[in-house]
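Standup, Tuesday
Yesterday: got the pipeline producing structure tokens again.
Today: sanity-check two examples.
Blockers: none.

Example 1:
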Amino acid sequence: MNILKNNNTRIERLTFDDKIHIYLSSGDVLVLPLDYTSRLNGATKEELEQYCLIADGIGVHFEALDEDISLAGIIHYKMTHDLMAS
């Protein structure tokens, strides 16, 4: 099942501090820990900032890290981790 099927929500931009802030076209902001993947966890802020949106905003490529993450994967992660935290 595709979480984003029939949904036009896309990633618009990212910002970084001690977490990754993902700004969506819907106006929502998703926040991920840096340990979302091992490559992101070990990255410097400069490496994180070298990203580009891919596939019209349904994913992010981190050039310096050779790492890709998808909006579908982020939503799945948030759904499972937010349920576990409740």
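Example 2:
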Amino acid sequence: MERPDDPKEWRLIEKMLMKTLDERKTARRWGIFFKLLTFAYLLAVLVLFAGRVDPKALEITEPHVALIEVAGVIAAGEDASADRVITSLRRAHEEVNVKAIILRINSPGGSPVQAGYIYDEIKRLQALDAEKPIYAVIVDIGASGGYYIAAAADEIYADKASLVGSIGVTAAGFGFVETLDKLGIERRNYTSGEHKSFLDPFQPEDPEEVAIWEEVLATTHQQFIEQVKLGRGDKLETSNPLLFSGVVWTGEQAQDLGLVDGLGSSSYVAREVIGVEELIDYSMQKSPFEELLGELGASFGGGLITGLKGGWWELR
């Protein structure tokens, strides 16, 4: 190519060539970055697969205590869902070398349905084999649905500073009627059925609907109380008028009220109460893909989706 006589034209061509070279370098760098990212992703998956150990695959022949985590909100799709906890319970119960099961609970509560499923399964397994006791150990908090589950255990332990109880039901919401009026927004809601738009936050409260909902909550609360009484029996200090009021207690206070049997950790219960020091985690593990997404921060998105899907009626 002949060099242009005009220096300005040459400088323009030179700038264009340099820009093209810079773009190619940038594209090459991004290509290397994405290749490294893909490699890191595959490596993480391999590590997660390698790190997953199924207790049954260990072929443990010595007596041990099965540990099952009940951590976080008790809800479908969460770590403390009925599906996960019940699967872990059944696996531990079927293992002949498991001498006892400890449910290590660290939960503020959640779905009364999910908690009820777990409660019923604990009672079913106890009826099948009374020689394999199930203990509940409350860590930081075992409140509401968390305590609902614990109440099914043969014995409950907690730390002296654990938060225990909160035997009640809550349903919270907002009202936006005046907000819509101020903004000049007209609410259009078409239904078939007198109460189909039950407790619509964009319409004034209907006293009849409020009464219906309060009855639902009261019924659920009574079911909760009955299950706690069934599980704890004569251990409860029922003369205290606040026992079933939704109040939360420390582990030390809970012991005086009969909500827990003693103070101690999972290791303490295994060693001193059960008499078997070896603890093996039987908690249902997440898949490697779930673990990886959690590491990359996708767990936030999963929590958001769960929140949007519902669950505003909870044991708390």
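Quick observation on example 2: The longest strand covers residues 98-107. The first helix runs from residue 7 to 51.
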